[in-house]
Amino acid sequence: MRVKNTSFMMSKNQIKLIRSLNQKKFRQKHGLFKAEGIKIIQELIKSGWAPEAIFTVTDIFAASETQLSIITEPELKKISGLKNPQTAVALFAIPKDKPPDHTGFSIVLDGVRDPGNLGTIIRLCDWFGVSSLMCSKDTADVFNPKVVQSTMGSIARVLPHYEDLSKILSQEKRPIFGADMEGENVHKIKLPEEAILVLGNEAHGLSPETNNFLTHRIAIPQFGQKHSTESLNVATAGAILMNEFRR
């Protein structure tokens, strides 16, 4: 049964709590993260994630939703982290961490710190059917609102696992491919179905520790004549390489 409040007025404490979820320490303290926008919220609900609360300026959610409160546009602006708030903000409990799958094709992120890149890579994993995504502990937090926004709901199907990469990679029996501009042309390599693809930091690439565990280094060939572009965005490179593995 839905709890709906059409004459709801947000308290200062509620606004403060929701805004605090922009920071990792408060997400961990309260065990909550926030999602913004009708499409993302509905996608998470459809995937089985029950919201703790929904604050919206219009009553468009299904009757199964709980703790739904109708708020004003000014209130929405106070709790939104977006320049242009998108109708609704929902709070979800941070799910329990699950151990990674060490079979099939996996993606490993080594120090990918930009929230937009992490969110896009999660969405790419969802598109290419990659359910196993492992991240170094210095990779951006998956429950950062910018990451959640960038996933467009894919976070419900592809949830990263944060680990000590040296520990994980040292125990791997699958071949480990690292994206490296000095690596072998990916178009000339026969890629296995079971493998690990490691993508590195936006500015510095793969860490020395991770480099030690690579069995192959692969690169995306550049076709531009002037070669003035130094490198590809990590999410763009990830999309191209995932496609190559899935071919």
Strand content: 15-25%
Distance from N terminus to C terminus (CA atoms, Å) equals: 47 Å
Question: Cα-atom Rg, whole angstroms?
Answer: 20 Å
**Oligomeric state of the chains present here:** single chain
Give the overall form. elongated
Overall mean confidence score, pLDDT:
91
CATH class group of the largest domain: Alpha Beta
Structural class: alpha/beta
Order of secondary-structure elements: EHHEHEEHEEHEHEHEEHEH
**CATH-assigned homologous superfamily of the largest domain:** SPOUT methyltransferase, trefoil knot domain
Q: In CATH terms, what is the fold-level topology of the largest domain?
A: Alpha/beta knot
Describe this structure in words.
With 247 residues, the protein is α/β, with parallel strands linked by helices. It folds into two domains: 4-93, Ribosomal protein L30/S12 (60s Ribosomal Protein L30, Chain: A, 2-Layer Sandwich); 105-246, Alpha/beta knot. The chain is 30% helix and 23% strand. The protein has helices at 12-20, 24-30, 38-46, 73-79, 115-127, 145-151, 165-170, 208-211, 234-246; strands spanning 4-5, 32-36, 51-56, 68-70, 88-93, 105-110, 132-136, 161-163, 176-185, 195-200, 216-219. The strands form two sheets. A six-stranded parallel β-sheet has the order 8-7-6-10-9-11. A five-stranded mixed β-sheet has the order 1-4-3-5-2. Helix 6 (145-151) links the parallel strand 7 (132-136) and strand 8 (161-163). The longest helix is centred in the middle third of the chain and has 13 residues, at 115-127. The radius of gyration is 20 Å and the shape is elongated. The termini are far apart. The mean pLDDT is 91.
